[in-house]
Give the backbone structure.
Amino acid sequence: MRMIYNPILKRDVSVIGFGCASLGSRIAPAEGLRSLEYAYDQGINWYDVAPPYGDGQAEAILGSFLRSRRGRVVICTKVGIDRPEISPFKRLLRHPARWAVRTFPGIRRHVSRARSVGTRPPLDPKRIRQSVENSLRLLQTDHLDVLALHEPSPEDCRNPVVIEELQRIQKDGLAGVVSIAGSIDSISAGFSTSTLFQGAQFEDTPFLQNLRKLLQENRARQPYFAVTHSVFEPSAWSNVDMLLRNSGRRFGLEGQPSEILIRYALANNPTGTVLLSMFARAHILENCTRAAEQIDPAIVQRLDKLIAQQALPVNK
Ligand SMILES: NC(=O)c1ccc[n+]([C@@H]2O[C@H](COP(=O)([O-])OP(=O)(O)OC[C@H]3O[C@@H](n4cnc5c(N)ncnc54)[C@H](OP(=O)(O)O)[C@@H]3O)[C@@H](O)[C@H]2O)c1
């Protein structure tokens, strides 16, 4: 595993991180724990979670994994979206739903849509503190390495009451670094309002170019780190698949879409961490193999050129 020094966290972190959004929902707790352990053995030391992940179970499952490893891993959890209420009926459906998704992967999107989502009441100091204390209890730790606002609005990120409570949480030693996990508009709103925010987490694919937008909008900003995700977003996958079939070779791009997408993600965010969902052992192995390679910066130019040549839309 290639490690990189994160100057904000002041420690080495793995260039890929483990995303726990499905831990406890699509992925049963025992299976999830096995995947966390396997990924850890391959050198992954960044784990991303949030109160609503895994139908509200992910933090507790990650907490049991952390017990003997806490000092050796980076944990990011979030505040802003509550744990969903899962009715006893839906709880009963969990097991057959997992079986159905495993047997017929095509239905996964429909099952995900039927999932209960957490509410997002307005952010206020009491709610923020309660959420952080609850996360710490479930994660069985006394501090978070990164606390991120979870899909906040630009107004939330400018709100002095929210910023002051986050500052108090940091001062009390409950969170090391405060970050924003959401849209580039929200991240830029927070970055231009307060130096408290030192991390940005957002989706990025060759068709979004969000990191470029963030860098452009925050040129004069004090240092921060970027965590990107949604590498295998389905439309990015199918576009890259089509491009590789049609003209990949002419542009020096060969391989499976997964290979190209992850190499692109790593080369495009060379100083940050790329989050991946990887519960399948084969996915952990492939992603760790890619993450052990030296970055080839040329892949970014080549794929961007191919996308431009085929006139595929890119949100600049
Ligand atoms: N607002 C936010 O902060 C936010 C939003 C979205 C996501 N996230 C974070 O990012 C994490 C990743 O989520 P994502 O949406 O970006 O998912 P993703 O990493 O794009 O993964 C999507 C799917 O790709 C599969 N996959 C992984 N490696 C693969 C490979 N080498 N080849 C083929 N398929 C592969 C995964 O399967 P398996 O998992 O079954 O192995 C998963 O089903 C989340 O868990 C969460 O922690 C944060």
Summary: Residues 88-103 form the longest helix (16 residues). The chain has one domain: 3-83+118-309. The chain is about 45% helix and 15% strand. Residues 19-21, 48, 151, 181, 201, 229-233, 258, 275-280, 283, 286-287 surround NAP (CB under 6 Å).
